[in-house]
Structures are given as C-alpha cells and as structure tokens.
C-alpha cells in the first residue's frame, strides 16, 4: 500500500502530526515507531518517571568522551516507545521565554517563528486545568494541571527562594518567566498526559491512520531529489513502504539527523568516511547540537520529608493502593513539581538557570542515593554557547550514533553552570529550609573552590534530556530545513521535531516540540497560520472574553 504521508517516529511531534494530518479523511497516514506501546502502568503513573531514566523504553545510548569534562562519558537517554520523550519525562510543562522565539526570528532568520506567532500553537495544544488568559488555552488535546500531592518541603523551598531574593511566580508560562514556584504538569485526571494519550488514543479508530510499532526506519528512499518512501527493519526483516506526498522525519534531535545521514543526506566527507553513499550533500545535518547540562545539590533531610522512604516494600504497597483508590500520594507526584528560573548572569537577556526540586535522592539514573531521606536541587544552564554533533559510527543503521554534546567547550558555559550550582546551594542554606535539611551531602561542605567545583561537575553532571538543533531551521549554508520545514534541496521530505529548533529554548523541551508539531501540521496541510497573539494591554480591552476567544 502507498500512503500519502509517512511519519518516521511516534514522539511528541510525530503524534501531533498523525492526529492533525489524519483529520482530513481524504489522506492516508502511516505512523512508524521503533519501540513498543505504552501499555505498562509505569508510563501513566506520574511517579513512574523515576524508573524511566534508568533504561525503561530507551535506546541505551551514551555520549562520546567529553573532552572538556575530563573524558567523562554520560548516559544519554532517548525514548523508544509510543509517545517518545513525553511518555518517560518528568511531565514539566514549560515553554521557555518569549525572547527565545524572538531570537529565532531575529537572529536565525526564522520569520514566522517569533513568540507572537508560536504562542497560538501552544494554546491550541493545551487543555489547562487552571489558566485561561492571553497565555493559556483549554479544550486542546494536551492535559496541563497543577501538582496534587505537594509536600511541605515544596512550600519551604519556595519561601527559601524568596528569602534569597527570587520572587514567587505562579505561572512560568505567563507574563514573566523569572521566579520560584510550582510547575504546571502534563497530566490529566492525575495521570500522565503524554503525546500518545493526548493525540493518538482519541483517534486510533480513524480508518485513514495506520500505526506500526516495532518498525525502525533504516533509510529514506530517494528517487532523484524526491523522497518516495522509507525502508524499515522489523522482526520479520526489511520492508519498503512508499508514500505519495511526503516523508515526515520526526525521530528526535538524535534520531532525525541519524536517519538523514543513514540515507546519504548530510556532510559528504563524513558520509564517505563511514561508507554511506552520498545522495545529497547537506553540511548542517547533525551539527548545531545543543543541550542543557544539569548540576545538582543533594542534602540529607532531618526526617521523612521526601519520598525516599517510599522505597520500603510496605510503604510502596500502601502508596500504590492510595493512588489506585484516591489518585493521591507519592505515586501521583512527578517527583519534580517545584522549581524556578533565575539568573546566573545578571546581564542575561532572560533567566539563564532553571531549578528542579527533586523529592528524594537518586531519583534519576546515575545520581547518588543517600542512606537516609534526601532532597535534590537540580540546576541547569539554559543559554549554552557550546555546540556539538551527531555522527554515524558506521554504515550499519542499527549501530548507535556518536553523540557529542561538546559540553563546556565554551568556557562561559562552565562558569555559568558553576554559578547556578552556587545559587542552588544558597537556596538550601536559607532559614525556611532549616527544619527540613540536616546537611548538604553533595557536593559537600568541603567542596568550595572553583577547581573543586569543576571536578565535582565533571564527575557528576548529567544531561537534562533537552537536545535540539541538529537539523537546524533557518537560512545560511548550515541550515537543514527552511521555514516550512522542507529539507533544503529535496522534495517530499520535511523534518518536524526538536531537531529543527535553531537554539534550545530556556526550558524543558516537550511543550516546544509539541508546538513545532502543531505549527508544522498547518504548514504541511497548506493552511494559513493562526493569527499572531495580542495581549490585553495592547488591545486596551479588559472586557470579559467569550469562550471562543480564550481558546
């Protein structure tokens, strides 16, 4: 069978495209996913996130040795399941700063992708439990709600931030980003609202949509300069699938450039070096890799103030029962429900540090777990200048890629990361947290000098799982796709996921990726863009708005 559209991955953007494109009953859509279904209850329980970074439903990749971090190799979790990263992340709903998208337009040549132009697509996707204003919508596919099982230490953290001079912010996605507060979460009815549940589950009965799991796309098939299909590898062998309109690459910031390179689309010299025939010389493929690097402080608590104690068998059983009966308790927590945005560099254009308060120690893979109850404060630098690459290790499509985020290649990134860590330590030292925190255990009171903190960072830093940029949208010789997401120099081929973002947004990247999928769907369908956002102060209109205006 020939399909109109073939979508190469069922991550957040792929799920959006499958939904929006199949709204037209006259087109046929094939959605391919290398992983399996999200049937395991852990995918739907908010606290299931703690298991996800430890190898559940992921590719098992890692970075190459990081030469600016003493050769450290970092685990690099990338999802391999229906819903992609939205099925295994911490469910934080953050969009970034308006300045992020205005820079896309002003400095990267991405006209039509400025904040006023993309905000309507964020709102179209959203079904917000609490907010309905210039910045938020409801009635969309993606459930967004507030935490339901916050612990007292969360409020103490917010007070501690204010004691340090960081203001309280009730909505990081609203008028301003800076401050401390509670995150909004991609949850509905106290269950994870992944892209799979939000965009696919309601429409799986559409006769013009086919979803195939366990199908890894090996290469894109080109006839001349036109993409006409894909080759997939399954448990039964390889298979050719053809399309009449377009191949839509949605395999993520690592998987999408990998697929293009496997197909002979990319820097010619690199392709020849690994034995891949050059089909289309496109130098920017796999370049411009950006990611947020995470440093963390872990403190021992004065008592049972976090969820570390729930790991004991009898408490695990009780927590599970509480969630089943009441949808409350530890299982209803994303474990990272409180945080904030602030400045490592006081002159930064917008907040350049993001904090995540982890309700325990050792929550994520590779992070030390304390013997007694602990609490973690992650600090991620949001405006990295360092740029890395994704390259092939061989011509074998099944081989892991060479992932080089090139962390701290720009010394400014290291300086700002260590300053963010210093601020995180100061938050833990404030009076509001004294009843909850016994002592800092990592880095530990003895670690103070720049050299000591650098050593600590090299040994313990981790990815924040926010890679972008490897199929950059924009202008210039290194751009991979144009403003319509078409691959430059080819027909019938677009990339539509986080890999097209020219710069990493100042936030978790799930919501921005869904926005790219929403806007991309309209581009593919040839629809007019949604009207650019207007704000109340510009309308000079404080009147109550009709329901249709809010959405």
Kindly describe this structure.
The chain has 551 residues and is α/β, with parallel strands linked by helices. Helix content is 25%, strand content 20%. The chain has helices spanning 12-21, 49-52, 98-107, 115-125, 152-163, 195-200, 252-262, 268-273, 313-326, 411-428, 450-460, 510-525, 536-539, 547-550, and strands spanning 2-7, 29-33, 126-128, 142-144, 179-182, 187-188, 191-192, 209-213, 216-223, 226-234, 237-249, 265-266, 280-281, 293-301, 338-342, 353-358, 374-381, 389-391, 402-404, 437-442, 462-463, 493-495. Strands 1, 2, 8, 9, 10, 11 and 22 form a 7-stranded mixed sheet that branches. Strands 5, 14, 15, 16, 17, 20 and 21 form a 7-stranded antiparallel sheet that branches. The protein has a two-stranded parallel sheet with strand order 3-4. Strand 12, helix 8 and strand 13 form a beta-alpha-beta unit. Helix 1 (12-21) packs parallel to helix 12 and helix 4 (115-125) crosses helix 12. The radius of gyration is 23 Å and the shape is globular. The model is unreliable at 540-551 (pLDDT under 50).
């Amino acid at each position: 069978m020939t399909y109109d559209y073939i979508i190469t991955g069922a991550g957040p953007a792929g799920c959006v495209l499958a939904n929006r494109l199949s709204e037209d009953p006259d087109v046929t859509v094939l959605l391919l996913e290398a992983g399996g279904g999200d049937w395991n209850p852990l995918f739907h329980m908010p606290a299931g996130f703690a298991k996800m970074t430890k190898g559940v439903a992921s590719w098992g990749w890692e970075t190459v040795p990081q030469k600016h971090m003493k050769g450290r190799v970092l685990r690099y979790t990338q999802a391999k399941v229906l819903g992609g990263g939205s099925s295994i992340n911490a469910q934080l709903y953050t969009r970034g700063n308006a300045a992020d998208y205005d820079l896309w337009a002003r400095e990267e040549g991405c006209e039509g992708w400025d904040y006023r132009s993309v905000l309507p697509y964020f709102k179209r996707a959203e079904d917000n439990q609490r907010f309905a204003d210039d910045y938020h919508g409801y009635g969309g596919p993606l459930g967004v709600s507030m935490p339901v099982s916050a612990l007292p230490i969360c409020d103490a953290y917010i007070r501690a931030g204010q004691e340090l001079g960081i203001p309280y912010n009730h909505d990081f996605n609203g008028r301003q980003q800076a401050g401390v507060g509670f995150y909004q979460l991609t949850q509905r009815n106290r269950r994870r609202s992944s892209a799979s549940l939000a965009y696919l589950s309601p429409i799986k009965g559409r006769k013009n949509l086919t979803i195939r799991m366990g199908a890894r796309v090996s290469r894109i098939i080109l006839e001349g300069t036109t993409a006409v299909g894909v080759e997939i590898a399954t448990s039964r062998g390889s298979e050719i699938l053809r399309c009449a309109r377009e191949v839509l690459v949605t395999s993520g910031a690592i998987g999408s450039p990998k697929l293009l390179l496997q197909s002979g689309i990319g820097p010619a010299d690199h392709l020849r070096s690994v034995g891949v025939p050059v089909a289309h010389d496109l130098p920017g493929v796999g370049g411009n890799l950006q990611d947020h690097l995470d440093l963390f402080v872990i403190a021992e608590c004065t008592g049972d103030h976090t969820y570390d104690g729930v790991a004991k068998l009898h408490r695990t059983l009780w927590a599970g029962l509480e969630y089943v009966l009441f949808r409350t308790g530890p299982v209803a927590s994303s474990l990272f429900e409180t945080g904030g945005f602030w400045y490592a560099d006081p002159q930064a254009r917008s907040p350049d540090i993001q904090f995540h308060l982890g309700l325990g120690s050792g929550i994520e893979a590779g992070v030390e777990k304390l013997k007694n109850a602990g609490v973690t404060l992650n600090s991620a630098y949001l405006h990295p200048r360092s740029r890395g690459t994704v390259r092939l290790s061989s011509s074998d499509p099944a081989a892991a890629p060479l992932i080089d985020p090139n962390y701290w290649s720009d010394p400014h990134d290291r300086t700002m990361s260590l300053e963010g860590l210093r601020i995180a330590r100061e938050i833990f030292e404030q009076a509001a947290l004294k009843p909850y925190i016994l002592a800092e255990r990592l880095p530990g009171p003895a670690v103070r000098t720049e050299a000591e903190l650098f050593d600590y960072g090299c040994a313990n830093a981790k990815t924040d799982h926010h890679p972008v940029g490897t199929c950059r949208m924009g202008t210039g010789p290194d751009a991979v796709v144009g403003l319509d997401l078409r691959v430059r120099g080819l027909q019938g081929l677009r990339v539509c996921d986080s890999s097209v973002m020219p710069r990493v947004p100042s936030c978790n990247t799930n919501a921005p990726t869904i926005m790219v999928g929403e806007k991309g769907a309209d581009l593919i369908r040839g629809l007019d863009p949604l009207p650019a956002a207007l704000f109340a102060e510009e309308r000079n209109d404080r009147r109550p708005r009709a329901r249709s205006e809010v959405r």
